[in-house]
Amino acid sequence: MVDPAPRRAPLVPLLLIAVIALVVSLPAATMFGPASVSFSDVVEVWRGRLAGDAVTTPVERIVWNIRAPRVVLAAIVGAGLAVAGTVVQTLVRNPLADPYLLGVSAGASVGATAVITLGVLAAAGTWALSVGAMLGAVIAATLVFGVALAQGGLTPLRLVLTGTVMAAAFSAVASYLVFRSSEPQMAQGVLFWLLGSLARASWEQVALPLMVLLASLTLLWFLRGWLDGLLSGADVATALGVPVVRLRVLLFVLQAVLVGVMVAIAGGIGFVGLIVPHMARLLVGPLHARMLPVGALFGALFLVWVDVAARVLAPPQDVPLSVVTGIVGAPVFLVLLGRRRYRFGGES
Amino acid sequence: MNAHLEARGVACGRGRRTVVAGVDLRLARGSRLAVVGPNGAGKSTLLRALAGLDRPHAGEVRLDGIPLGELGARARARALAIVSQHETPPADLLVQELVGLGRLPHRSPWATDDGQEWTERALARLDLTSFATRSVDQLSGGELRRVLVARALAQEADLLMLDEPTNHLDLRHQHELLATIRGLGVTVVAAIHDLDLAQRYFDQVALVHGGRLAAVGTPEEVLSTELVGAAFGVRSVRVRHPESGRTHLLVEPWPGEETG
């Protein structure tokens, strides 16, 4: 006899633990890298900087100017991808959906590849890569949206088909750009970007993704009931008074902005947006009021430590983040799939 | 006085193809209408149009005299609840969470109050209190139906629409569910296959056949030998039950098609 009540983690203690873990992880993660710094030094630097002291010593420079923005961005991007994954999974009611399903990141990769191989947007300087990726994401999202709408609306099936087909086309364009570029370093640069990296992180990059993340979470918090309704299907949601068509448009735009910004900052980091929402649902159930904050915190924690692994696995080189998330993510996902009773939006 | 639910010249269908047309109906508050008809006649299609899930191709549906199209989505969801035939709720959702979704049309996004007492009352009325913390994917077909009806009750809607509510239920659970629904005291519209159940638990029957409402009236009027024969291609007789004295509908294939 199976226990009829699924085991749920108590929400408030879980959130508290995750918040504390994140607060500890942010400084702790700046200890690791090619040059290791002791925890007490790290705490000293963070305390000094947060109190307004100037950065003077080399250790302070490594910890605060190089590693700290990287760790903070890892947390923001991890949370952003987890939230985007949740949005896409709810929008298309498909457990295999991830933030990259709807073609936004493939479009971003065309933009980034064009910047790396063709040198377009050189005027944007250090921002060129992010701006190129963002432009690509906007164009791709608009195309996918337009095609899906023209062919029958933003229904789950239409979105999955359009997104997958268009993503394949965008990836082909990106591959072609790499193929016709003459220099092998460029191909490596593109590959590194595609697989995700925070190696170029700086404090100036933090504000935009942080604002996008907080705004998205706030909006989704107000929409939480409607999202729960949509999870049961369009007819049920309509019968419960959810404006399904408008909600789908809103969610599409939201995921496009989230994915566009996160990918522009960090490249195409895989697995986070796929697994973390599932993990949150397993722990606290599928209602969005519970799983969204848990997922955001878990995504942040996960990527902070993935990025630490990326720094320490093969020093002095950075390992691309997708290499780490894939190696950690694949077994985690298999365990999820093998779990006795986890089923999301389908019979399988 | 306005009818609780009224259809005026409604034509409806799936996509552009009209399946049923010229539907006129008036349903008083508290009455129960069974929509019967052969497979593919358009029972579900008509139900969807009456519930506002699909826009009718022609005519209009009124709720307490107000055209359904003029009601906002939330207002409609507060007045009318639907239990559809196929619904797979998200896995790992608890019964109380699924029933709690019925509070959606009443909840403002800012409210922290989630209408828990309504959920509990709905669970209690359908005798589901002990199921509250079960996962919905652990429920039998009959239990899931009851949970979905409880969600409809949590909506506080006094018009309940059900598409084939007794599908996949065994004999006892068919009777239990329909008796429960009858006891709720709300207005009910249900598409149903079993004509005997229709005449037992409903006070009006609408027969959908040949792209229109072939007949509307009391079960005795509509479930006559002639009308049932014309719509379903079977021979029906009314027989008095030797013990209960209740009238039942017995059905035989036409003589030429005898198989058993």
Write the layout of secondary structure elements.
The complex is a heterodimer of chains A (348) and B (260).
Chain A: H1 11-29, H2 39-50, H3 58-92, H4 104-118, H5 128-150, H6 156-180, H7 184-194, H8 207-222, H9 224-231, H10 234-239, H11 244-266, H12 272-284, H13 288-312, H14 321-338
Helix pairs in contact in A: 1-3, 1-13, 2-3, 3-8, 3-11, 3-12, 3-13, 4-5, 4-6, 4-7, 4-11, 5-6, 5-11, 8-11, 12-13, 12-14, 13-14
Chain B: E1 5-14, E2 17-27, E3 32-36, H1 43-51, E4 58-63, E5 66-67, H2 73-79, E6 80-83, H3 95-100, H4 116-125, H5 141-154, E7 159-163, H6 171-183, E8 187-191, H7 195-201, E9 204-209, E10 212-217, H8 219-222, H9 225-232, E11 234-240, E12 247-253
Parallel strand pairs in B: 3-8, 3-9, 6-7, 7-8
Antiparallel strand pairs in B: 1-2, 1-4, 4-5, 9-10, 11-12
Protein model, in words:
The complex is a heterodimer of chains A (348) and B (260). Chain A is mainly alpha-helical. Chain A has one domain: Orthogonal Bundle (ABC transporter involved in vitamin B12 uptake, BtuC), CATH 1.10.3470.10. Chain A is 72% helix and 0% strand. Chain A contains 14 helices and no strands. In chain A, helix 3 packs antiparallel against helix 11. The longest helix of chain A is centred in the first third of the chain and has 35 residues. Chain A starts with 10 loop residues before the first helix and ends in a 10-residue tail after the last helix. Chain B has 260 residues and is an alpha/beta fold. Helices cover 30% and strands 28% of the residues of chain B. Chain B has 9 helices and 12 strands. Chain B is globular, with a radius of gyration of 19 Å. The mean pLDDT of chain B is 90. The interface between A and B is medium-sized, with 35 and 34 residues.
